[in-house]
Amino acid sequence: MDQVVNQIMFYSRKNLFDELNRYLEANLDIIKKSMNQVVPAMQSLLPEGRKYSMGLCYLLYVRAQIPDKGLVELCEQFFSLYDPSQIQGFCADRFGFISHRYAEIIRTLNLYARGINILTQVTMSLRGTPESLTPVHADLIMLCLLDRKYSHARKILDQTILEINPNRTGVTPKDYLLYYYYGGMVYIGLTQFERAFEFLQTCITTPCVTTLNAIMVEAFKKFVFVSLILHGKFAGVPRQSSGVVQRSIRQMCQEYVDVAQAYGKRDQEKMQKLVTEHRAVFVADRMMGLLGQVQAAYTRQAILRLTQTYVTLSLADIQKAVGLSSPDVVESILLEMADRKELKALINKTDAMVSFVDADASEAVEHLEAAILNVRKSMERIRRVEDSVLVSTEFQLKLLYKDPKLKQEILELEEKIRKKGLLSKMTEMLQ
Length: 431
Prior knowledge:
The protein has helices at 2-13, 17-26, 28-33, 38-45, 53-63, 70-81, 92-108, 112-127, 135-146, 150-157, 166-169, 173-189, 193-204, 214-231, 243-252, 254-264, 268-277, 279-284, 288-307, 315-322, 327-339, 359-390, 393-402, 404-419, 423-430, and strands at residues 312-314, 344-348, 353-357. It is mainly alpha-helical. It folds into 4 domains: 1-171, Alpha Horseshoe (Serine Threonine Protein Phosphatase 5, Tetratricopeptide repeat); 203-306, no CATH class; 310-357, Arc Repressor Mutant, subunit A; 368-430, no CATH class. It has a 3-stranded antiparallel sheet with strand order 1-3-2. A hairpin with a 4-residue loop joins strand 2 and strand 3 (353-357). Helix 5 packs across helix 7, helix 8 (112-127) runs antiparallel to helix 9 and helix 9 (135-146) packs antiparallel against helix 10. The longest helix has 32 residues, at 359-390. The relative contact order is 0.04.
């Protein structure tokens, strides 16, 4: 192990990182056989750890083969001082393994917040540019999910990924799939279903040749339910999906497809029956929360369809049509939908009647009211101008000049003014 440490120092000091990378790869098995000497070797390099980042990465990679609590502090020491330029393009795959193992232990120990803080900094430093995907992205989003730090995860997820470079960052197809799968789950947690739909669809449509990835299957299950919430129906497997996905994924998620078909046919009774029959599957998949949102979306969409047919309905009629438990529940849902601006309605508590206001008509009324207000403001401005004109000296003189009864008097005044040399000025005022 002393020879390995000496070689790490020698090559690093001379910035011969290509040679160091080849040396460490060639001697990786030798390092693994000296597992008990790995930590002391790391301790000897850590004081100048940034200079020896590549060597430390390989030593930590070997130590990470044994996942225990002691690995956490070693990883955090390394993450706090490493030089990304010695990792990118050289041993990013080894770095990715370390990140995954660190996140795994943090998850086991329930130290989510600690892991989120560390991996956020690692993600920022390793990616180089905000548009680049790294192996650390998925680990970070996974910890955010476990700790329900959806807003923190969104800061990462809202950045569009434009660069996927395995040679530079060590990102793998699994990292890619998990990033979009976990991202879809974060947006579900935020009830941003359009973004959830996009992320899950990206995961499902990832090219695959021979076998169906388990991550894609789980993404598809959520994709089906998100489609129902967002669009009121499931349009089927995305056409851009690989052939193996087109052929197999529906059969592997048949319970979800069955519920979606009943939903699309607006057969509430059958849908509820299927939910009951397949409850064990949904519980095992931890889908009951999302399923509850699907059922709530079905109710809201059923109410919206009523607004297209009726202008006024009683709370009891809506309860019966939609299949709710009581008029009070109907009122609660209507208020919630109004708060979300999904509809506009007036509830008369005296006779328990609901009047639906067409959204387009309501907007037209608002525009009309605004136009009328503008006209009133314009008329007020015109009135003020008229008042100022009526009291002006010039206007009054013009009126006097046109008065037949005063014409003679004005002619006499003109004669007097002419004698004083002021006629030209008076003429200008009267014209």
